[in-house]
Amino acid sequence: MAQRLKKLSFLNVLLVLIFLSWCVSAQAQTNWCEDATCKGCWLMDVDEDPLTDTSGNGNTIALKGAGEPNFTAVGQFGGGYIFDGNNDFGLVTGGDGSDFDPGTALFSMVMWLDSTVSDGGGTDIPFMAGVGGADEYGILLSDSSNSVRAFANTDGSADADSGVDIRGAGFTHVAGIRSATRTTDIWVDGVFKATDSHAATESIDITSNLAIGMQVSGILHFHGTMDEVAYFLGKVLDIFDINDIMDNGLVQAATGRTRRMF
User: Fold this and answer.
1) Which domains does the chain carry?
2) Could you tell me what percent of the chain has a pLDDT over 90?
3) Cis peptide upstream of residue 50 (ω within 30 degrees of 0)
């Protein structure tokens, strides 16, 4: 009996050590923007145009619109940008565009969204590469289901519908993933919500620039505030990665920025 208790005690200590090691490891991520697979990382912490690409790949985003998206000091981590839903958007003008052309590769896209429209006021697209109805991927807020969705396909016919209405809900973390099995997955606030296998065998070939705040063709403008946007090519962010980014920010450990808890 005593020997068994010693074994149990040892196992308990070992489990605690493993848990503590995982916690330290989870907090040790200092800068997701420096990950080798990060092709675009826009922190939106300062008032600037174009937006700096912190990944170092030169994929700066030029801000467009009558008044352009307006900087706000009240983002989820640091600052953010407010899009008016009428003509504000941003377009990647730096780089050569190849960073956002996945073909059959895996990829992940993450962002914080505070959609201020709560009345189902039209479909909004906060993040998109490609041309509507052709090869494309991105995140949209649907006016038919009032839910946030991720899409990645070659004909605009399908998406992963989270079933979660984020309009008027304050800042919400959204992640769209093209997984190892080439399904399109949607995560909301660190929780997996839905998957779509429509484009599992397709090559998504992007020939246009990546846009934030609208569909690339110039419609379906996003109405709300955006913060901490990043795109990873060749990487499937898992539950630990997504929650680390959500809880600690893309570069929080490196800069000491803190998450707004509202």
Assistant:
1) 31-255 (2.60.120.200)
2) 56
3) yes
Tell me the residue ranges of DSSP E strands in the chain: 38-42, 61-64, 70-72, 80-84, 89-92, 107-115, 124-130, 136-141, 148-153, 160-161, 172-178, 184-188, 191-196, 211-212, 223-233
CA 197 to chain centre: 20
- Greater model confidence, 168 or 216: 168
Which residue in this structure is represented by tokens 């519908």?
Answer: 161
C-alpha span between 83 and 145 (Å, rounded): 22
Q: Give the position of tokens 């906060």.
A: 126
- pLDDT at 12 (0 to 100): 60
Which residues face 130 on adjacent strands? Answer: 136
Using one digit for the tens of pLDDT, what is the confidence trace for 140-188?
A: 988 777 799 999 988 877 789 999 999 889 999 999 999 988 899 999 9
Q: Is 41:47 a contact under the CB 8 Å cutoff?
A: no
